[in-house]
């Protein structure tokens, strides 16, 4: 994502904005980066739902979906750990 990417103005309910601010701070990201990350995840999840046939409206689960979810958990933790490490390194660099 670059500054050349087209901007998009949206209105958010106050509570949703607060949640995004909190999540962005926890992830050491800007609000924009947090929103983009969550939108990308949502779109990717939608593709998985379509490919596996998981029915969101009725909550029908499939073995493929459960397996994909189980496999994603260690990756999600690893990403969080790496984000924490990067934030710690940035703090060290900022002090110098």
UniProtKB/TrEMBL annotation:
**Superkingdom in the source lineage:** Bacteria
MF terms (GO), sorted A to Z: DNA binding
UniProt cross-references to InterPro entries, sorted A to Z: Arc_DNA-bd_dom (IPR005569), Arc_rbn_hlx_hlx (IPR013321), Ribbon_hlx_hlx (IPR010985)
Please list the residue ranges annotated as the Arc-like DNA binding domain: 3-44
Read off the SUPFAM superfamilies from this record.
Ribbon-helix-helix
Q: Provide the GO biological process annotations.
A: regulation of DNA-templated transcription
Q: Any idea which UniProt keywords this protein has?
A: DNA-binding
Q: What is this protein called?
A: Arc family DNA-binding protein
Q: Organism source for this protein?
A: Rhizobium deserti
Organism taxonomic ancestry: Bacteria, Pseudomonadati, Pseudomonadota, Alphaproteobacteria, Hyphomicrobiales
């Amino acid at each position: 994502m670059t500054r050349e990417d087209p901007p998009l103005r949206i209105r958010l309910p106050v509570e949703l904005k607060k949640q995004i601010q909190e999540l962005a701070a926890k992830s050491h990201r800007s609000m924009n980066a947090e929103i983009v990350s969550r939108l990308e995840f949502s779109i990717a999840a939608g593709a998985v739902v379509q490919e596996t046939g998981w029915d969101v409206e009725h909550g029908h689960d499939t073995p493929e979906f459960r397996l994909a979810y189980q496999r994603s958990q260690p990756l999600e933790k690893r990403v969080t750990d790496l984000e924490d490490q990067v934030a710690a390194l940035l703090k060290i660099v900022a002090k110098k």
